[in-house]
Design brief:
Layout: H1 2-10, H2 19-29, E1 35-38, E2 44-48, E3 57-63, E4 68-74, E5 80-85, E6 96-100, E7 105-110, E8 124-127, E9 143-146, E10 151-152, E11 156-159, H3 162-177, E12 184-190, H4 198-207, E13 211-219, E14 238-242, H5 250-262, E15 268-271, H6 278-283, E16 291-299, E17 306-309, H7 310-325
Parallel strand pairs: 3-12, 3-13, 13-16, 14-15
Antiparallel strand pairs: 1-2, 2-12, 4-5, 4-9, 5-8, 6-7, 6-9, 7-8, 10-11, 11-17, 14-16, 16-17
Helix pairs in contact: 1-3, 3-7
The structure holds cobalt (II) ion and zinc ion.
Length: about 325
């Protein structure tokens, strides 16, 4: 199991460049699903089971893409300047390493710390070791991601892409475990979430689900200095009441709480001031879809060192299997 997550988190896959991640996932699950297709944007849409009496068509979505940067221009000295692909905070860029798809690595730095202030993203450049534009291994339009190994810390795991390869991992493990269900379940591995929930939008249109669930990370508020203390490590998966993209559908959330209680799984209620997940896009598809999210509390989101609690991950898998295996009302 851990080896799979290690491979998933290591795969290169900034928004719009998810092919490596998709191929790895497809290889892992193609014998466990009844049908699969890749749509025009690159979403991997898989189906498990067929609709039975009292069943529902459910879309489960985990995004394959990770945040990254894209080269805007390379100057005469060979420094590559960048813009963001998704929610990259300038603060988290200072002095980090990045890696390009061709294997080129570089140091991400800014001209100066103006009076101790964090530079804007357009002041950052990648030093790939090049000495001129001509011998620079990267060019305009090339995407890169933070470098950050998978680290097994025992009860916790850390890597550059827990957001959202942990969601992909939960979906993979759940669909492998899943046996009988009255529901027709579409497990979607979506593209371009980090740039505006784009893949989930087209996938939801084509699936036309009756229920939408996103699997993603959420903020963990149990580290020093954070005001809100409502989400923490080890307290179980988080069920979405609200974020910047969605108000979780109350009857659906109640059905998820019931599933958790049935199976003796601890859970937390997730209220975020901002941010969003694929559930926000599914909810607004066609004439509207009752939607929510099952999230895993994650420390240091959108840094090269995103950290999750192993027990929370395992409980999220159990909760998802329990929830989709039964009639939902
Ligand atoms: Co994210
Ligand atoms: Zn995410």
């Amino acid at each position: 199991m851990k080896e799979l997550l290690q491979k998933l988190t290591a795969a290169f896959g900034p928004s719009g460049y998810e092919t490596n991640v998709r191929e790895l996932i497809l290889e892992t699950i193609k014998n466990d699903v009844d049908e699969y297709r890749v749509d025009a944007l690159g979403n991997l849409i898989t189906r498990k089971g067929t609709l039975k009496e009292n069943g529902k068509r459910i879309m489960i979505s985990a995004h394959m893409d990770e945040i990254g940067l894209m080269v805007t221009h390379v100057d005469e000295q060979g420094y590559a300047y960048v813009t963001n692909l998704g929610g990259v905070r300038p603060l988290n860029c200072m002095s980090n390493r990045v890696i390009f798809e061709n294997g080129t690595e570089g140091m991400l730095c800014a001209r100066d710390l103006e009076n101790g202030k964090i530079p804007a993203l357009n002041q950052y450049f990648v030093d790939t070791g090049a000495s001129s534009r001509e011998n620079c291994e990267v060019k305009i339009g090339d995407p890169c991601v933070f470098a950050g190994n998978f680290v097994d810390m025992g009860d916790r795991w850390m890597s550059k892409t827990m957001d959202d390869r942990i969601g992909c991992y939960i979906a993979i493990e759940a669909l492998k475990e899943l046996k009988d269900s009255p529901n027709e379940i579409y497990f979607v591995f979506s593209v371009q979430e980090e740039v505006g929930l784009r893949g989930a939008k087209t996938a939801a249109y084509s699936i036309d689900p009756e229920i939408g669930i996103a699997l993603d990370v959420t903020m963990c508020f149990d580290t020093p200095g954070l005001v809100e203390r409502n989400l923490k490590f080890g307290a179980g998966p988080c069920i979405k009441a609200k974020d910047g993209s969605l108000v979780g559908t109350p009857w659906l959330n109640n059905a998820i709480y019931d599933a958790a209680e049935r199976a003796g799984i601890p859970y937390q209620i997730e209220v975020l001031r901002g941010a969003g997940t694929d559930a926000g896009a599914i909810a607004l598809s066609r004439s509207g879809v009752p939607s929510s999210a099952i999230s895993v509390a994650c420390r240091y989101v959108h840094t090269p060192s995103e950290m999750v609690d192993v027990n929370d991950v395992n409980q999220a898998i159990r909760l998802l299997v329990e929830f989709v295996s039964h009639e939902i009302k």
